[in-house]
Amino acid sequence: MSDAPVPCDQSAASGLRHMLYPYSGTSTYLDGLMAYVGEARAAGASVVVCAPEDRCDLLRGYLHNGDSVAFMDLTALGNNPGRLIPAWQEWIERRSNAGAVHGIGESVWSGRSTARLSELRYHEWLLNVAFEQAPAWSLLCPYDTTGQSEETIQALSRSHPYVWDGVAGTTAEQYAAAPYAFAPLAGPHAPFDEKTYTIEDLTALRELVTEWATTHSLSTDRTRDLLLAVTEVASNSIRHGGGGGTLRIWVEDGALVCEFRDAGVISNPMVGRVRPAANQIGGCGLWFVHQLCDLVEIRSGPSHGTRVRLHMDLPYTQGEEKT
After folding, report:
1. Closest Cα partner for 218 from 271, 257, 244, 179?
2. Residue 119: which CATH number?
3. N or C: which end of the chain has fewer CB within 10 A?
4. pTM (whole model) above 0.85
């Protein structure tokens, strides 16, 4: 049996060709991306780039006027990876009628908190679920391996069915289709408050969250957003999680964290990551929670119920590192 890499199938009628591009250095980065753009041009495909603004500026300098490239600034979506899949769905829907689409999705991995890195990796895995039945398109995910451990690179490789070697795509040996293996959530940072709740306690719950937000200088607008999200998640616990749950609240990695625990089970991995239809009634709550908060973590299973963590970034102050 040959050990040669297996070329990925580029003729599939549907679904996503989702490729990791491990690279090191600007020169390698540009060579690989220009080869990918060349592949798109040869296929008559348009290119959509979602990347930090400095990367967009860099790529613009190496592209020709006829390359049919649209740029989307990643920073405009905020730091919540839960907002990325619906954004890609919207971009692909706009362009798929005009022909094939090649995407480039580059997230910021360095300097991120443990929670945000975990959700970024989960987002990469969820892309395969979200676009399994979609019209065929391709997405290249550049990842700078400089200073990264082999373990970290392997963990990300498990979320990508294909690997780009700078010239072509091949099947990834380490890809794990399902189920997704989450790292265990760490416990709350001290000091923290804990409160059990039922429907009679929603006012007291909001008062507790307001007290923490005020103490840690969260703005009035951001506090309002957090309270809307808190009310939505707590209400879901009451309706679907056995009549109530437990709130724990603390500060971690420059963010105010509100964790809700209940006995319910969420079985849909895409919950909160699909844009509601204009005429949809109900089932939109976790979508709005993702739009309101800077990070949302959801862990659910029959053996342990559901935990939802809402992260709201606190104002940057001297002596603190914002992640």
Report:
1. 257
2. 3.40.50.300
3. N
4. yes
